Amino acid sequence: MTFNPKNEILAEIEPAVALKFSPQLECIELNRGDVLQETGTEVLWVWFPDDALICMASESIEGESVSGGMVGRNGAFGAFEACGSRLSYARALVQIGGAAWRIRASRYRELFDHSANLRVAIHKHVEALLIEARQLVACTAIHRVESRLCRVLLDASARSHQGSHLTLTQEELANILGVQRSTIAVTSSALQRSGLIRSRRGGVDILDFDRLEAAACSCRRTIAYAHQEIDRAPDDVCEG
């Protein structure tokens, strides 16, 4: 298969390095519900979504879990851990099916050493994830479920290939937001009555992006601004 990734991190790799390592990168089709990584297990693969959306879930000792963020074409899963502890402390679940690239962690470490552009892209990605995680802690405590749901729907659309037609069920949205399914049902009904979305079996359609953006919590704009500032940072800062 020709190496022509939509993933923004892989797209940064220098052409000569990409040519050398492309045989090690495999593009596969992920299905909704696939578990790519269990909590506490060794990271054997690093994943770079093209069209798929991966949910990173944090789990308690009792087995309860809540989403710790979503990774789409703008990011990677396992890239930081593969060069560190080599263990994952999150469960990686495919939320929206689609294509993704993967590379064995051992070969990824070689790729990381060979590509200065990749090191910069991963550094910026990890910084963005940290900022997003901190912001979402505040978001959960401060903002109403309705505005948080609007943010999640917009983020899922932007980070996957699905546009306005999202295959996210109410149960999945409840897990992402850490609330009861009944809360999502009531909130979705309110957004539907306002003409922002349309709920359907197995998913939700976004009907008005502009109004949904206006209804989303301010964390979406805060995170977007942080991403822009990180992208503007000189590459030599990341390389030391």
TrEMBL record:
Protein keywords: DNA-binding, Transcription, Transcription regulation
Transmembrane region(s): none
Tagged with keyword Phosphoprotein: no
Entry's Gene Ontology molecular function annotations: DNA binding
Keyword rRNA-binding carried by entry: no
Positions of the HTH crp-type domain: 143-210
SUPFAM superfamilies attached to this UniProt entry: cAMP-binding domain-like, Winged helix' DNA-binding domain
Pfam families: HTH_Crp_2
Protein name: Crp/Fnr family transcriptional regulator
Gene Ontology biological-process entries: regulation of DNA-templated transcription
